[in-house]
Amino acid sequence: MFKKSIAGTTTRFSAKYPAVWLLVSGCVQTLPLSAQEAGQLLKPRDTINISSGYFSKDYANNVDYAQILLDESRGVERLSKLGYETYGNSLSSWGARGAYVVGTNLLTYTSHLRLSYHEWGHASRSVAMGGTATFSNCLGGNKWCDAPRDFFGYAGSQLFHFDGGGATLVNGTLTANADSGKAVQNIMNGGGVNNEMLVSDKLGEQHFVRGTGSVFSQWAQLGQLAIATYGPAGGTGDLATVASQYRSSGVDSHIQEKDLRSINQLSLISGTTVATAMASYNFIANGKVKAKPWTIGGFWVPNQYNYISSRGITRKWVSGYELNERTKFLGSYEYVVRGDSFAEPGLGIYQNFGGWDALVKVSGKSLAWSNLETAFSKRLSKNWRLNATAYVWDSRSLLGERNSLNLSKNKTSQFSIGVAYEY
What we know:
The chain has one domain (5-422). The two termini are 34 Å apart. The longest helix is centred in the first third of the chain and has 22 residues, at 66-87. 51% of the residues are buried. Strands 2-16-15-14-13-12-11-10-9-8 form a ten-stranded antiparallel sheet, with helices on both faces. It has helices at residues 66-87, 94-109, 112-128, 151-157, 185-189, 191-210, 215-218, 238-249, 257-265, 271-286, 398-403; strands spanning 5-14, 47-51, 132-136, 146-147, 167-177, 213-214, 290-291, 295-296, 299-309, 312-322, 327-339, 343-352, 356-363, 371-379, 384-394, 411-422. It has eleven helices and 16 strands. Helix 1 (66-87) runs antiparallel to helix 2, helix 1 crosses helix 6 (191-210) and helix 2 (94-109) packs across helix 10 (271-286). By secondary structure, the protein is α+β, with helices and mostly antiparallel strands.
């Protein structure tokens, strides 16, 4: 259960200069394993990433921390596979395997790291809009339990609190871009569920780019229902606040919280849902662990995601095409479902060059508001890889307002370099 307290927030607009939106997905930091020096494509392995972005001390930095949840998903998946390999003989019945796959997937889906990243979404957006934010790791009435401000400290403090949620206190004047939508406070109000959606989005893309996975990590991708499953309902909960802001700002004078949830429920109609169902059945019925993304004739069956924006709730379609194991194309289209008309298409390509990997994505409603993402991964040794990513966000865009370091500027950029240990 999540709760957010907001105090002393007002809204004004400011604009600077035109820009180009260059976007990098944190998911790209866990690209498939680079080929050996001899140029052979190797089987993807799991990783633990250490990025310079984790230590930037810029509280507006949002996207880099998504990688932590991707690594967590891979780690739980590996432990689950190890457990099944060790005790598989004891899980010979459908019921036993069904209980095992449900239990292991819930370990990731209910992780306290998801709560931490949810609250970080609110906090990062408030800082990007010129405000400040502090964390609490307890709920209930006027109770407030001060928590560390850095991501790792906050996530660690959650281990010692079991009352089911956290809170973010936002203060200051929140400033959005002059070209943002009318419901600018929803950039911060929706930051929590948007971050949960982002993790699911990245997990789905990672599964397609890697080309393989296991049943023990599939359910984590169903975080695409973060809006539909958010609690609490009504009152001062995030979704009630978001709907109220849409009505009062004139974005949608009739929208209610239930409408936001209903729109998101339709995202269950996705390729990931079918892939998860098929993988779960194959494991429960036949004990098969492997789970591949659902493709037809090389085309990745589309996934749906929904995000809260200043212009209204959006729907994002993501798909791709696998030319071969080394070359894969990506495509996306995000548009406002209810609210002010706005849309952003996107294209990308993943390529393995034999000793290193690269992912490049371009998106935006026009050339002037376009986004580019680049990420590179180079093998250093048998178990270590060097990663580099670069982001330039345009705060006028849908994705930019979710991740920009400073929303009063059209364009901000960030760069990270790190290493990944493969196991």
